[in-house]
Amino acid sequence: MKRIVLIFMLMASPLFAVQPDEVLEDPVLEQRARNLSTGLRCLVCRNESIDESNADLARDLRLLVRERLVAGDSDDEAIAFIVDRYGEYVLLKPKTSGSNLFLWLSGPIMLLIAAGVGWTFLRNRSKAHELGEVDTLSDDEKEHLRQILED
Length: 151
Hints:
Blueprint lengths: L1 H10 L15 H11 L18 H15 L4 H12 L12 H33 L7 H12 L1
């Protein structure tokens, strides 16, 4: 019984997302297509490659990759065609150039800015403590706070 369940689980795994009717007769072209499709994102499933996805759109993209390879495109030309059509979001590993460079660098830059602001705040706070410039409540404010807390 456990073996049957295991077999069914393996059959349902994404390893078999590529349908038999999609497979190219030329094993070299098929291997190239599989290599390319592992680097392309399924637009329905998000962080799953089109090679692993069972979505209809992923199937269409797999067929498109194979069409481009059969037409004689190189790997880079096939990827460029799909990126031109669907945008850079279709790449599982986006490029670190152009407008994406800003996105790649914005996280570390924000972290450095936050660290600088925090360090400046703590340094000024400790200097204020050392100089005795810490604001304290006046007697009227203390009395008003005591009344609020009693209510």
